[in-house]
Design a protein that fits this description.
The protein contains five helices and three strands, in the order ααβααββα. It has one domain: Arc Repressor Mutant, subunit A. By secondary structure, it is mostly helical.
């Protein structure tokens, strides 16, 4: 039996998918939306360092990829709420694992970078 990862080097089109789901903003937004649907400004407040433009781009890309649903309520002004699609929900465990790994290893990586940079 072959492992699906054995096909990775020859798999056309997988790079752009991995780039999307490996993006730092995507991981944070997917983890956030895995809890409950959120409105734009709520997402912006809860994702440290993301600009309005980058949040807009990331949400549009996630919607285009079918990972996020955008629901517009017919109110004045219109209210927009974002939630994960079924495919987006299937990504949550992996995204959480990436986020946990990053949190657990951030000091090690910061120290390694400093050591490397000082040796150059």
């Amino acid at each position: 039996m072959t492992d699906v990862l054995d096909e990775l080097p020859n798999c056309a089109g997988v790079g752009d998918v991995l780039a999307r789901i490996g993006d730092k903003w995507t991981v944070q937004i997917v983890v956030l939306l895995s809890r409950r649907p959120e409105r734009f400004n709520s997402i912006k407040r809860q994702v440290p360092g993301i600009s309005q433009q980058m949040l807009t781009r990331t949400l549009k890309a996630l919607e285009r990829d079918g990972l996020v649903h955008r629901a517009v309520r017919n109110t004045t002004p219109p209210q927009v709420q974002y939630s994960l699609s079924e495919a987006g929900m299937s990504l949550t465990q992996t995204a959480r694992q990436l986020a946990v790994w990053a949190i657990e290893h951030r000091e090690f990586i910061r120290d390694s970078r400093a050591s490397y940079d000082n040796a150059q």
